Amino acid sequence: MRGFGALYRKELRTDFGSPVALAVVAVFWALSGYLFSFNLFFVSTGQMVTAFHNMTILLILVMPLVSMRAFAEEARQGTLELLLTLPLSDATLVAAKFAAGLTVLALMLAGTAAAVLPLAWYGEPDYGPIVGGYVGVFLYGALFLAIGIAVSSACANQIVAASATWGILVLLWFIDYPAALDAFPALSPVFQALSLSAQHVDFIRGVLPGPATVTLASVAVLALMIAAVNLKRWRLR
Amino acid sequence: MQPAVVLHEVCKSFGPRQVLHSLSLEIRPGEIVGLLGPNGSGKTTTLRLMAGFYTPDSGRLLIQGRAPALGRGNADIGYLPERAPLYDALTVTQYLEFGAGVKVAGGAARRREAIARAIEGFDLQAVARSAIGRLSKGQRQRVGLAQAVLNDPPVLLLDEATNGLDPVQIVEARDMIRRCAQGRAVVFSSHLMQEVEALCTRIAILRQGRLVEDAVLGEAPAALQVRLALPTAGHAALREALLACPGVRGAEATVIDADHSDWRIVWDARAVPQAGAGACDAVLRALLAHARLVAVRSMHDAVEARLLAALAPNDPLMRRRA
Prior knowledge:
The complex is a heterodimer.
Chain A: H1 4-17, H2 19-41, H3 48-67, H4 69-77, H5 79-84, H6 90-112, H7 116-122, H8 127-152, H9 158-174, H10 178-183, H11 188-194, H12 200-204, H13 210-236
Chain B: E1 5-14, E2 17-27, E3 32-36, H1 43-51, E4 58-63, E5 77-80, H2 92-103, H3 108-121, H4 137-148, E6 155-159, H5 167-181, E7 185-189, H6 193-199, E8 202-207, E9 210-216, E10 223-229, H7 235-243, E11 248-257, E12 260-267, H8 275-290, E13 292-300, H9 303-311, H10 316-321
Parallel strand pairs in B: 3-7, 3-8, 5-6, 6-7
Antiparallel strand pairs in B: 1-2, 1-4, 8-9, 10-12, 10-13, 11-12
Helix pairs in contact in B: 2-3, 2-4, 4-5, 7-8
C-alpha cells in the first residue's frame, strides 16, 4: 500500500486544519460529559454502560460529520481528480481515509475516558467491562464511519453525504422496532439481523459476542469495498 | 525516438454523447503540444484520459509505451488540472510532503531532496510554511506545478494552467512551464492564443471531439504585422492585392493618421504550393508595390489564424475574422 502513510497524514492534517473535525470532537466531548454528569448527579447512576449507550447514540449523530468529507469534499473542491490521477490504488485511498477517521474516533473516545476518574475515585470499578465497552463503542463507531465513507464516495456534496448517512444509520438502528416486526412477521429475522441496536447491549457491557462482532466487521469491510467500487466508477465514467 | 504518449483511434462517450471520435495523436519527449479548440471540443477529456482519470471506450492509449493500469494513477504523469485544485488547509510544505510521499520512490532522504528542489525551483521559499488557502493565484499555480513535477515525470499535462493569472504571473508561469518542459512531453491546453504561441512547439486543434489540425509551429510564418506609409485612399487596392496572394485569408488595417496605418495580414501557409516562405514573398511584393514599409511589427505563426481556419474553413464569417 504505497502512499498510505502520506495520504493518512494528509487526511489528518486537512481534517484538523479545518474547524469541522475540531468542532465534532469538541461537541462529542461536551455532550458525553454532560450526559455522564447528568446521570451521575441527577439520576445517581454511575454506570459506564449508560455512558456507552449515550456515546453510541452520539456517534450516530457525529460520525456522518467525520465521514462526509472523505470523498464528497474532494469531489466538490476538484481535488478528487488530482487524487485519482496520483499513483495510488483505490484500496489505499479508502484505507487511508478510513484509518484517518478511526484516529478521529479514537480521539473522541479517549477524551471521554475522563469519566472513569470519578468512578475510580469514589468506587472500585471493574476495568474489564469498561475496556470491553470502549472496544464495543469503537467498533460501532468504525462501522458508522465505514458506512459514511461508502456514502461519501457516491456523493459530490458533503451535506447530502451526511444526510444520507444519518438516514441509513437511523434506519439500521430502528429497523427491528417492535411495530415493524409485528407488521411483517415473516421479515422479522431479516430486520433483527440487520439491526444495529439488537446486539448493542452486549457490546456496551463489554461482552463482544463473537458472531455479532464478525457481522459488524463484515458490514464495515463491505461498506469500504463499496467505496472502492465507487471510486472505480469515477474512473470508468 | 519513442513517443511518450500515444493515442490511437481513441473514442470516449458520456452516456449518449460522444465526446471524442477516433482521436489519434503521438507526443514525443521535448515537444510542447498546445491542445486547442472551443469549449466542449474534448480538450479536458483528452487530458483526463491521458492522466488516467477517465478510461477510453475504445482505441489504444499508451504512456511511455505501456497501457495505464486501471484503478490507479500513473507515476509517469505529472498533471495539473484546471483551476489548480489544492488543499487549502495544508501548508505548501505539507502539500509537497503529501505529493512526495505518494510519488517519489526511494526513501525519506529522496523525498526530502525532491521537496527542497521543488521549493527552490519554483521560488516557494517565502511561502513554504503558509497555508495554501492564503496564497495568490500565481503562487497556487506554482505549488500545483511543483507537485506535478516532484518525481520528475516524463509526461506533463497542464489544463488551462495560465487562466486567471495577471500578466506578470502569466510571464512567470510561462517561464516555469518552459523549464518544466525540458526533456519532457508536455500537453498544454489553453484558450490563450498568445500563450500557446509563446510556449508550444506544436498545436493540436480539436473540433467536436475530432482532431482537425496537427501542426508544428515555427516551420513557416503565417502572419505579418506591418506599419505602412499609404494614404487611406490606397487601402482598397492594397487589400485587393493582398487577398489575391496565394493562401491569404485576411488583411485588416488600423488607421494611424491620414498617411499611415498598421496592417495585419494572415495567410494559410498550407494552401501555398511553395510552402510558407512563398506566401510571405508574395505578400511582401504586394505590400511594396502599393506602399512604403515603415516598420515590421511581427512575423509569426498566428495560432489564432490557424485555429479559426481549422475550426471553420468554409465559414465566411471566420474567414473575415481571420
